[in-house]
Amino acid sequence: MNIINILKPNEIANETVEIGIKKTNRPAIKMFLLGILAGAFIAFASEGSNMAAFNLFAKAETYGLGKVLSGAIFGTGLMLVILAGGELFTGNTLIMTGVLEKKIKVSAMLKNWFFVYLGNFVGAVFIAFLINQSGLLNSGANQLGAMTIKIASYKVGLSFGQAFILGVMCNWLVCLAVWMAYGAKDMTGKIFAMFFPIWLFVTSGFEHSIANMYYIPAGIMAKGNSALINAANLLGLTPEKLNALTWKAFFTKNLLPVTLGNIIGGGVFVAVIYWYVYIRDEKKSKNKEDEMYSKA
Fold first, then answer.
1. Contact assessment for residue 190 and residue 181, using Cβ atoms and an 8 Å cutoff
2. Could you tell me if 123 and 40 are in contact, meaning their C-beta atoms sit under 8 angstroms apart?
3. Neighbouring-strand partners of residue 184
4. Rounded to 5, what percent of the chain is helix, strand, coil?
5. Nearest-CA neighbor of 100 among 21, 164, 177, 12?
6. What is the dihedral of CA 6, 42, 162, 255, to 10 degrees?
7. pTM over 0.70
8. Contact in structure between 24 and 16 (CB atoms under 8 Å)
9. Mean pLDDT value of segment 1-12
10. Where are the domains of the chain?
């Protein structure tokens, strides 16, 4: 007997609606707590990917290999969210399918987004704080900390348009990973479904708002360590770029445009399009068939 362990695309679409209903029906405190966990999971993945590849990032000829290695590790974060349990803002842009299907109110979706996003922020910044306090950033003769600062500086140095576009492409892939994970019926299938799109987005250098809640605060906090700053200077980080790395720049120059891009990437290019193709049109076709049979 053949056992099919995956759902068809139209079945995934309907499953996404049902999952969205469950997510929005949770009490706010549970959304917030699960958001903290997801933020921490993504931060762990961010820190681990930096640890694995910081020495490769320092050289132009190995930079791409560093991104490949980072991407291979980063997917663990989403796996923890989906399999262990957590609420991730970027993946929750798929709730839009339920809104379009008129089974979820817009206010319920926005409530979920607010508390999950807030929880993600708390969890990610908490891990950034712990990593800074742990002394791990002194790894590799302070090179890990130096690269952490340099990565954060790069992210706040993007233009609004660049950050927005990179955010769109990022969450397009992230939500495809979540979408396919919803379609897998066993743990192995879910892991494989998530691994490759996440590997692709990190290797490509796209921008993820929740990951940046670790990357940039970790870099800002690391600025308080003179040894790390000196090491960052050796990597070519200028005083002007270092001074531009602030909490204000984090919120206005990166987090805002990347978050907006993430909403479009997941909400429009995945949720809206797949709802239109697999739910709305199929429902219209079924209604036409029913009308034909009723008139016969």
1. yes
2. yes
3. 6
4. 85, 0, 15
5. 21
6. 130
7. yes
8. no
9. 80
10. 9-281
